[in-house]
Amino acid sequence: MKTILSYSCMLGIMLLMSCGSSDAGKTKEPVSANTEAQSNPAPGSSGSGVVGEWEQQYTYFDKNGNNKLEADEKNPSNTRLGFDWFRFNEDGTCLRDKQMKFKSTYEIQKKGDADELMIHNVHGYTITELTSKELILGAEGTFIVFKRIS
Q: Which of 18, 45, 66, 124 could form a disulfide with 41 if both were Cys (CB 3.0 to 4.6 A apart)?
């Protein structure tokens, strides 16, 4: 029961955090993320970077709370959290949410040993894994799995 309540609270927090915010009145210069992503690929990366279109597939949960994705935690849930879709462009601009297509900018920042995907006006995700076909983003006890669609 405690685990279900914990996951429910986590789901609620993630949904609140992922609500689209208006970019009106806020101007940010696009940051060229592709160059940095290519020169500093994420662990497990094939060097392809995050540029492209990504669709959320499912979510894994960090069962032991150590913020690391382990083999026994790789059980897809029937839950989708946060944004269902991203398109990252070479010029550092991006779109999020396939229906609403919220505009934003992004950059890849080093955070200790990991790369962090910062989407302006949203929050940061830790890049847990990045290959030419799959992007796994870690955020607050969850790992959100995306498949490259272009």
A: 45
Residue 107, CB-side half-sphere exposure with 13 Å CA sphere:
11
CB 121 within 8 A of CB 21: yes
* Structure-token pair, residue 93: 């601009």
What is this structure's pTM?
Answer: 0.65
Query: What 8-state DSSP symbol labels residue 50?
Result: S
Over residues 50-82, the pLDDT tens digits come to 999 999 999 999 989 888 888 888 877 877 877
Residue ranges with strand state E in the chain = 52-61, 85-88, 93-96, 102-111, 114-119, 124-130, 134-139, 142-148
The number of angstroms, rounded, from the C-alpha of 50 to the middle of its chain's C-alpha atoms is 10
Over the range 56-90, which residues count as b (16 or more CB within 10 Å of their CB) and which as e? bebbbbbeeeeeebeeeeeeeeeeebbbbbbbbbe
